[in-house]
Design goal:
The chain is mainly α and 212 residues long. Helices cover 62% and strands 0% of the residues. It has ten helices and no strands. The N and C termini lie far apart (88 Å).
């Protein structure tokens, strides 16, 4: 695109371009030049919207955090419907197939970006932290309605699911995990904590002498 020609939704196009580069080439391939080339826009477009490249990357991470939080809200809305394993498998794939692995590798790779993000999010690793909180909230809701066994450590289950999910999606060179592989991992982590249906009330046995 020639210099000076405006592009529609420039910020989102630049964010999407950066994510494609991360998924394809990793954080070492991400530069302001590579982002604008991938987005098909003039080199100066990025700096017209962001103070510097680390500022652009910080906003990219924040934008993707919002997406993960939306996925978490959708997941909590599914509590009580479908199966717990199916709901979690779909949510984990939604997080890791596009966003989390790429952005987490970027945050770890760039010290300046990590320091800037600490000013807004002092605890944990962005995206993984929000995804863990969302899954823990969903599991707590399922426990409340009886589809996760009483006393289950939902926070620990959420951390284990996120850690396991990150491991199976982390290798960019390997084939992407199949839905069945993700589902098997979720089922193994949940183990015997899943009831899937609220417990039925036991019927009180009426003895013959109590009958009219």
């Amino acid at each position: 695109m020639p210099t000076g020609v405006a592009i529609r939704d420039a910020r989102e196009q630049l964010f999407d371009a950066a994510e494609r580069i991360l998924l394809r080439d990793g954080p070492s391939g991400l530069t302001s030049r590579s982002v604008t080339a991938e987005a098909g826009c003039a080199k100066g477009v990025l700096h017209r919207h962001f103070a510097d490249f680390d500022g652009f990357l910080a906003e990219l991470v924040e934008d993707r955090v919002v997406r993960v939080e939306r996925l978490g809200a959708d997941l909590r809305d599914k509590a009580g419907g479908g199966t717990v394993a199916d709901n979690l498998s779909e949510a984990l794939a939604g997080v890791f197939e596009t966003v989390a692995v790429a952005v987490v590798s970027l945050v770890i790779y760039r010290d300046a970006l990590r320091a800037r993000l600490r000013e807004r999010r002092p605890n944990g690793i962005p995206i993984l932290t929000e995804a863990t909180e969302s899954i823990a909230g969903y599991l707590a809701e399922e426990a409340r309605i009886g589809r996760i066994t009483a006393g289950a450590d939902t926070a620990l289950l959420a951390r284990t699911l996120i850690g396991s999910g990150h491991l199976i999606f982390a290798d960019r060179a390997a084939p992407r995990p199949t839905p069945d592989a993700v589902h098997s991992m979720v089922t193994a982590v949940l183990g015997a904590t899943v009831a899937d249906r609220p417990p039925r009330r036991r019927r009180t046995k009426v003895s013959q002498r109590d009958q009219p």
